[in-house]
Amino acid sequence: MFAYILRRLALMVPTILGIMLITFAIVQFAPGGPVERVLAQIQGQGDGSLSRITGGAGDLGGAARANSGGAETNARYRGAQGLDPAFIKKLEQQFGFDKPAPERFLKMIWDYARFDFGKSYFRDVSVLQLIRERLPVSISLGLWMTLISYAISIPLGIRKAVHDGSRFDLWTSGVVIIGYAIPSFLFGIALIILFAGGSFLQLFPLRGLTSENFATLSLWGKVVDYAWHMVLPLTALVLGAFATSTLLTKNSFLDEIRKQYVLTARMKGLSERRVLYGHVFRNAMLIVIAGFPAAFISAFFTGSLLIETIFSLDGLGLLSFTSIVGRDYPVVFATLYIFSLVGLAVNLLSDLIYTWIDPRIDFSARAT
């Protein structure tokens, strides 16, 4: 097993390189980069915009507005008419676009290997600080959503399998399917309207993870305040999250219950609880665990984007989206790098959980 873990860790390196290389290549051909964004703001907003964004890289009163006839520069950047090519080159140098693409990529990989993500183009703050500030929101949403959805779906799926075809199985299936069919953001809006002062009740806070007086509360008051803020966004996320795992658990248990070893265990006089949790559970849960990495990554990073927007929760999902729209490439690449690392680590953890649940599985015996 130790050799298998080493091989998986070694495979992470080319996987990360491939992900970053493909994304970097796509970005090179994407229109409207950071330089174009600055030029558009210069043309549309006036002098103050440039000095704020570029940190005083040039004087708009003279060089930025000088009509120097830079035909080549104007051909490269749409909307750059009337701007000094020397000033635009200074912008390229500030953003690092004065170097060839291969050199920029190698430098980025070398920096990222040391977890040096640089500074945001437009926020004048380190990328690591931006991620650190928003990480608690993503951890709160992703972790609690995953734990709650699995805590609901696994017992519910087992009971549905045991009572397959009963009235309980039918009406719970209807609830699960309806919950899965309703988009989480739409359900979130309905919750706000009903319970957050939209049109009816004002029972829950509308935005944020904590109240303004959070620092002055006692320890128990902080726990209650945090939990109260999490009720609506977690309800909106969990409603559709546990549907797939519930049906997967049910079908997996049904498949195992019909096997010969279960009939043999029952003929030996074992209780139904002993049969289910002593024999069936270990085998049936393998397929559920297989879907855990994807569910965790989706919940932790991408699944909460719209929920973060609706409930004004500034997490990693919203940070990544706004950075992509704003062409803040250091933030885009850094979050992608971190997301990829976490995803690969969670997949490795999933394999280790496989062996813990069923020791008969030996990944180290696979051919290299």
TrEMBL record:
PROSITE patterns: ABC_TM1. Keywords: Cell membrane, Membrane, Transmembrane, Transmembrane helix, Transport. One of its GO terms (biological process) is transmembrane transport. It is a multi-pass membrane protein. One of its GO terms (cellular component) is plasma membrane. The keyword Signal does not apply. Belongs to the binding-protein-dependent transport system permease family. This is Microcin C transport system permease protein.
